[in-house]
Amino acid sequence: MSHTTDPNARAWVRGQESPWTWANLATVVRVVACLVIFAHAYRTGDETWNFVGLGVYWVLDVVDGALARAFDQETRIGAQLDILSDRLLVCLFYLNYVVLHPAMLVPVLLFLFQFMGIDHYLSNQFVRWPVKSPNYFYLVDQKIWAINWSRSGKLLNSAIVTLVLVGTNNPWAGSAVALFIIGLKVYSCVLLARIPDPEPGWLRPAERAAA
User: Fold this and answer.
1) Please, which residues have CB within 8 angstroms of residue 4's CB and are 6 or more apart in sequence?
2) I need a labelling partner for 199 at 20 to 30 A (CA). Which of 18, 43, 130, 168 fits?
3) The domain 19-210: what is its CATH number?
C-alpha cells in the first residue's frame, strides 16, 4: 500500500468535537442580534430595520464561517447550528416582509417551503458521511454540492432569490424563481437518493486511492 496525503484533511471529522468555539459564539451572537432587530422591525413596522436585520444576518454569517476556518474550528455541531440559525432568521425576515407586502405572500411561501423544508433536509444529509459540513459534500457527490453549496449555488439560493423577491416586489417573478429553485432541490433529492448509503468504514477518496 502506498502512502498518500489527503488534500482535504480538514474536511473530515476528527475525534470529539467541542461546541465551545469562536465560530459558534459568532452564530449565537448573530441569532440574538437579529432576533432583537427583527422584533423591533415587526413592532414598529419599519422596513428599514427589517433590511438592517438581513444585513447583520449576512455579515455575521460570513464572520462565523471565517472564524471557523481561521481557527480550524469547523465542526458538525457548528454546521448544524448554522443551518438551523439560517432557517430561523430568514423566516423572520420574510414574515416581516410579507406583512408589509401582502401581495408577495405566494412567492414567499414557496421560497420558505423549499428553504425550511427541502433545503433543510438536504443541508443535513452530510451527517451520513464523515465530513464536517455541507461545504465539503463535493467529497461525496460533486453535482449535488455544485447545485447547493458551491459559491454559485449559495449565491443562487440566497442572494439572487432575495434580490428577485424583494427587489422586484413582483409576485410572478418571485414565484417563478422560487419554483425554479424548488425544481433544483427536488432534482438534488433524486440525485441523493441514488447514492448508496455509506457502509461502516467508508473509505475516503485518498484512502481508496492508496488501497
Assistant:
1) 206, 209, 210
2) 18
3) 1.20.120.1760
